[in-house]
Amino acid sequence: MLRILCAAARMPALALLILAVAFPRPALAWGEFTIKDEKELGEKFNVLIRSRLPLVQDTEIVGYVQEVVNRLSRTMPKQPFPFTVSVIRHNAINAFASPGGYIFVFTGLILAMNHEAEAAGVIAHEMAHVTQRHIASRIENSQVISILSVLGMLAGALMGGSAQSAAMVGSLAAGQAAMLNYSRADEREADQVGMNYLSKAGYPPSGMVGAFQILSRRQWLLGGNIPSYLSTHPALTERVKDMQVRVSLMPEQVRNRKNDDTRFLRVQALIRARYSDIEPARHVFDGQMRGATRCMALMGMGILCSRQNRVKDAAGYFESALSCDPGDELIVREAGSFHYLKGNKTQGGNLLRKAVGMNPNDTYALYYHARNLREQGRAGEATDYALRLLRKEPEDQELHELLAHLYGDGKKMFEANLHMAYSALYANNKNRVKQFHEKSKGLAQTPQEKQALERFEQRYKERRELW
């Protein structure tokens, strides 16, 4: 678990979306792309991304990014939809937002920034594209198309404008995607409106300047997936100068705001330890062993050693991290999950129980605590925790598998097979989805079970359209 939904990001899989034109959907005539259409497109694009790219399923990370988005969104005029966050496990320094208010932030973006305000600046820029309906306006002015046929175009436009992107979606989709690319005016407006959101949210406005300077230094045009704000004219350096002038004209108390990176640095340490390359991460943590970041660095080294199965070294680092800050729930849960997974169920269980008590909303700790309770024969308590967690993480593949085992232990075979079907669905295992779906249909007897099956079949249909 709360592992990612797939092992690696395979961007070429998006090429399949060009087949969406085959789906029989009503056409969208010129000028009729309504808010309702925008919501529908956003929902389908969200399902697409969540079914194709590797996602982080940890509330410590996703919840943090959602809080940044919420802070920014409170400064905006009332929107017709909420902003919903997903975090993609990928080292690209990127973020994008789709119509309908779906925000996608790459782990590489968080690792590349020095301050929360810089990450927030990039996110604010992308949110401005949504609030100003830049893509929605382009769809309104395009030729007659269907919602599903737009998906391939949208993927091409948001994932980058390189030759690699053209190969990814095919020549037809690449040509169509050009219709949705942001214009100079769009980018200028997103810079200006995004800066407003950032400043009104209480961040140092220089955060956006710093973020775009980092992006420029990374020289994305040499390869990789090019963020839209680098591949679109006017030149990034020119836009940075415009931002600097604008910041210089702001009141002194706004210009001189201080960065508060307390939560940012914790999340950054967790991402670096769990998802980035081991040797560069070790080098960073070695440099953080003194000062305010020492406890997080010790925890990070413990996670790195655990990834290498250096159990004794990892145990030593986690012990030092707990001694450094015994009241830090993140350190407690990471130490607990380490000991539990490495076979020390007593120590791991005690730490996980403590972590859940410290932070009842921590999905990572809740998941492993529920697993530990099941192994202790306390299936009722484990089920209660798992169902509580399901309300927070309804698309977690491993959680559905745990629930399937718990219901199987209790001889509730409809529920067991239904949750195995959900688990296979969110793992994109087509054959196993079909297998457990058929078993569930054969076992559904009561009205409640039939309603539960109908809910699953709706989710199944949404995903199946994109397979």
Report on the biggest sheet. 3 strands, mixed
In spatial order, strands of the major sheet run 2-4-3
The tally of beta strands, per DSSP, is: 5
Mean pLDDT: 85
> Helix- and strand-based class?
mainly alpha
**Count of structural domains:** 2
- C-alpha end-to-end distance: 24 Å
In DSSP terms, counting alpha (H) and pi (I) runs of 4 or more, how many helices?
Answer: 24
Taking pLDDT < 50 over at least 5 consecutive residues as the criterion, the unreliable ranges are 1-30, 161-177, 220-226
What is the helix content?
55-70%
The SSE string, one letter per element, is EHHEEEHHHEHHHHHHHHHHHHHHHHHHH
Which overall shape is indicated by the principal axes computed on the Cα atoms? flat
Give the helix/strand layout:
Layout: E1 27-28, H1 35-52, H2 59-73, E2 84-88, E3 95-98, E4 102-106, H3 107-112, H4 116-131, H5 134-140, E5 145-146, H6 147-159, H7 163-177, H8 184-200, H9 206-217, H10 228-231, H11 236-248, H12 252-255, H13 262-275, H14 278-287, H15 294-307, H16 311-324, H17 329-341, H18 345-358, H19 363-375, H20 379-392, H21 397-409, H22 413-426, H23 430-443, H24 447-464
Parallel strand pairs: 2-4
Antiparallel strand pairs: 1-5, 3-4
Helix pairs in contact: 1-6, 2-4, 4-8, 4-9, 6-7, 9-11, 13-14, 13-15, 14-15, 15-16, 15-17, 16-17, 17-18, 17-19, 18-19, 19-20, 20-21, 21-22, 22-23, 22-24, 23-24
Summed up:
By secondary structure, the chain is mostly helical. The chain is 65% helix and 4% strand.
